[in-house]
Amino acid sequence: MKEPSGHPAGTLRVTVGILAHDAKKDEVCLFARAQRHLLDRVCLMAPEDTAMALEEVGLEVEMLLSGSRGGDLQLGAAVVEGRVDAVIFIQDPLVPLAGEPDIGAMMKVCDLERIPIATNLATAEIVLHRLADVRRIGDQPVDDPFDAYRSGRVIRLNRPARDGSRRSRMKR
Fold this sequence. Notes:
By secondary structure, the protein is an alpha/beta fold. The chain has a single domain (15-135), classed as Rossmann fold, CATH 3.40.50. 38% of the residues lie in helices and 14% in strands. A five-stranded parallel sheet has the order 3-2-1-4-5, sandwiched between helices. The protein has a two-stranded antiparallel ribbon with strand order 6-7. Strand 6 and strand 7 (166-167) form a beta hairpin. Helix 4 packs parallel to helix 5.
């Protein structure tokens, strides 16, 4: 059963796009097994080859076209359309292969749309846990902290003043 937002009932109102270079599919599957308790609670979207790997782990994934047929471009379009809240794009930085997704294009649309993008498993875990903390899995969803970024407002962390005292530096 789906809620009016299009997300399955009982899930966070969050969609995470996942894609990986071929050499990193096994790592993505290990990550998915370790973080299944969180990934089960979000909507997942992935190109066909990554989606099939995640389905073998037992996750439900919206399957896009294969990467060679433009699945990574479909995911990029979903980011631009506002249907994706975060992207996990695990790349193999040592072996750039022809025909594999280009991280530059995905980073560009994520930067333009102010969507968090994780390019390694450590960052992916941080993004996923942050979404879970903010959304309080199991409780009522709360306001999306990423909305401030998406709307163009800049949020700065508290920084020590020159005199050593703490002050808030927030620009809206």
